[in-house]
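Holo model, zinc ion. Inputs:
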Amino acid sequence: MSAAETEISGTFKGLKLTNTLTRQKEDFRAIDDGNVRLYVCGPTVYDFAHIGNARPVVVFDVLFRLLRHLYGAEQVTYVRNITDVDDKINARALRDYPDLPLNEAIGKVTKKTADQFHKDIKSLGVLEPTQEPRATQHIGGMVEMIKVLIGKGNAYVAGGEVLFDTASMPDYGGLSKRKLDEQKAGARIAVEEHKKSPGDFVLWKISSDDEPGWDSPWGRGRPGWHIECSVMSEHHLGKVFDIHGGGLDLIFPHHENEIAQSRCAHGTEVMANFWLHNGFLQVEGRKMSKSEGNFFTIQELLETDSFGGRQWPGEVLRLAMLMTNYREPIDFSMRKLEEAENLLAKWPEPIDTDVVPDSEVVELLSDDLNSSAAIQALHALAVEATKNPEKLALYSATASLLGVAPVVADLSGIDETAIQSAVQSRLEALKNKNWAEADRIRDDLSSQGIQLKDSKDSETGERLTTWEVKK
Ligand code: AMP
Ligand code: ZN
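Output:
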């Protein structure tokens, strides 16, 4: 590889980012200003995403928008993958589709989950990344990278697995600042017999007949999680790229191991120059997670009454998220969402415009994505724009840099007769105590952006239903 591919030639454009590699806020310069390259680890598609999973998606969407503003929309390549090989997916497929052949069942789980993920994050105002590779499309590349690692003495075959040999990399642990010795000392993890060191991790594992698998020199098997991102990022962004992002929990082991694989396979000093990590979205001080059971899915928040007895529009969820800077924890609460909603209610409907966004907001975002201060400055612009229509364009362009603005209902495509007849059918269903059907109709209308309000006629006591288009 020529040095020109990895040497930083870009100029400083005012962007400073906290780099987990150095734990410092550093001036960002791209390797190549003509192609700024960002990779973010995407979802493992076995279950609906919760609002904590949405945080990296929203945070890095703001970074993507900012980079497009600073470098030009065509000059930024953003890759966010989909992990569609994982033992959690297999387990879900067996549980949900026990009668189907495994491959088909897996296909159903991953399709349903990925479709829902796309729908969810679209509601959160997230732009599509430039590329969205899936792990299953890159198995061949993974086999090739593993061969290289074995050839270079960085990996070995043992116990039906190919393992990365952490001891073969003198500076393993540089991102998380963990030393191999410390891991040994704290060897609470039982050392599996076949591993040379307890920290050695799986690159490839052999599949049994009832597990999904691909042919490889080591037998029919499947890749480990970390190798997926090393291969997909190289394929789209090259051996060394500019920024790699994800949530704080990915620093170790996932990102540490991505770095180990990529650097050893390619013989490079770094995998990405900047590593960015968002803090956790928490509930009562604890990370929101599937395993804690303290989660709300994005879909539940958008379309059901499970949080605070009401639905929450996507733009409220997004604004609430960005009111806290990305490295800090967020306590997820009704108060926070209401605060965001109240702010949005004071903002005018944005207009289409090609003016440049406000320079103060650009500067605030360029300071390690200070989105909380950027929103305050945007609020001041919004208030001005309500008084002075000449300021509407500047406010609109700036709101679009953050991807936040009130969504004003578009009534043009609405078929009022069809809605009225659905409302009537629901009233019938309620009368017949067919609650499931009534709920189905309400959810169906909700997914079309129609919100129902039930009340009683004060004189007759008869049930009345009105509808409105969700803001
Ligand atoms: P997972 O599906 O667990 O691999 O998570 C997908 C992404 O969401 C990763 O970047 C995680 O770091 C991130 N993530 C998971 N839970 C949270 C949380 N509670 N707050 C913020 N980010 C999270
Ligand atoms: Zn990854």
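The longest strand covers residues 241-247. The chain has 16 helices and 15 strands.
Archived with the compound record.
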